[in-house]
Amino acid sequence: MESKTRKKSLVTGGGGFVGKAIAKRLVQRGDDVYSFSRGYYPALDTMGVSQVQGDIGDADAVNQACRDMDIVFHVAAKAGIWGDDIDYYQTNVTGTQHIIDACRKNGVKRLIYTSSASVIYNGKNMTGVDESVPYPETYMTPYPKTKAMAEQMVVKASEADLLTIVLRPHLIWGPGDNHLIPRIIDRADRLARIGNGKNIADTIYIDNAADAHVLAADKLLDHPELSGNIYFISQGDLMPVWDMINGILKAAGLAPVARSIPAKLAWIAGAILEFVYKTFKIKKEPPMTRFVACELSTSHWYDISAAKRDLGFDPKVSTEEGLVRLEKWLRNQNDERTKK
């Protein structure tokens, strides 16, 4: 069995929101941490993380990055809800295959894959469902489709020489977020509540997501029988979607959402806009899509009892505390911009 001495850990996408949080946790506990990303990030140097530049689509670069590693946290992905299918496929599917191949070639013993709860989202209410729920027959956007393909590859790759776990976080947020929170803040003056506002969701604060990844890696040492498993991870703190959005707006010093539109109308608008944007090959994201209309008007929360039972997952930072931390971070960001 693999020893529990100091580890060499590789985090793909280590310069990103989630990757950086995982790298920070690993550094804090004494691992030798490496990041594999396309860019260079001074913050990682400050943390003591060694950086390797390269593209996840380059098999040779991935293979080099995985040499001598004990564990790989595969976080790098093309996220978002709009874009060309081939771009998502090359990064999320081909890139993941490169990681699996490199792990095998280099004798890496453990692989933790960051997936998404959206891989099983079918556009309808999903309340308290567990990991047994099947993938939908069709997807409204390439991100969850390609992430679903990738996580199936990781599960299939689980063998005696490569132990794997797939984590499905749902709507990660917190200080440093460069995706969800900026989208909400940037659209603050145009936001309208979709539907009746009673739909429930469960998100996950960034520190809790990072903790889950490290827990999964450690549990594989003592419990290799967990290899090949998939786990939902979230706050375990259900709240209306629009209360969460208004909480983020409040943290940013902005007013709550006041307007509302029917869910069906938003879906129809999204379908029309998608058709127009695809027909005329408009690259930027439409102001509404079917996926967004569904996500903002339906309930989607997942049973995390398996992660609690098998991984010892216990979210340490509450949603309330997370929003306090977010407000402080956003205020500091504004102060720094003002000074410039």
Q: How would you summarize what this structure contains?
A:
Helices cover 44% and strands 17% of the residues. The chain is of the alpha/beta class and 340 residues long. The longest helix is centred in the N-terminal third of the chain and has 22 residues, at 85-106.
Describe the structure.
This protein is α/β, with parallel strands linked by helices and 340 residues long. Helix content is 44%, strand content 17%. It has helices spanning 17-28, 42-47, 59-65, 85-106, 142-156, 180-186, 206-222, 241-251, 263-279, 290-295, 305-311, 319-339; strands spanning 8-12, 32-37, 50-53, 71-74, 110-114, 126-129, 163-169, 172-173, 192-194, 200-201, 204-205, 229-233, 239-240, 259-261, 300-302. Helix 1 crosses helix 7 (206-222) and helix 4 (85-106) packs parallel to helix 5. 44% of the residues are buried. The model has no long low-confidence stretch (mean pLDDT 96).
How large is the radius of gyration?
20 Å
**CATH architectural type of the domain at 8-176 and 202-237 and 302-316:** 3-Layer(aba) Sandwich
Strand content: 15-25%
Q: Can you tell me the overall shape?
A: globular
The helix-and-strand class reads: alpha/beta
Q: Could you give the distance between the termini? A: 53 Å
> Helix and strand succession?
EHEHEHEHEEHEEHEEEHEEHEHHEHH
Helix fraction, binned, reads 40-55%
CATH structural fold name of the domain at 8-176 and 202-237 and 302-316: Rossmann fold
Low-confidence stretches: none
Largest sheet: 7 strands, parallel
Instruction: Give the mean pLDDT.
Output: 96
| Main sheet strand line-up | 3-2-1-4-5-7-12
Q: Could you give the count of β-strands?
A: 15
Spell out the CATH superfamily of the domain at 8-176 and 202-237 and 302-316.
NAD(P)-binding Rossmann-like Domain
Q: Number of helix segments?
A: 12
CATH domain class of the domain at 8-176 and 202-237 and 302-316: Alpha Beta
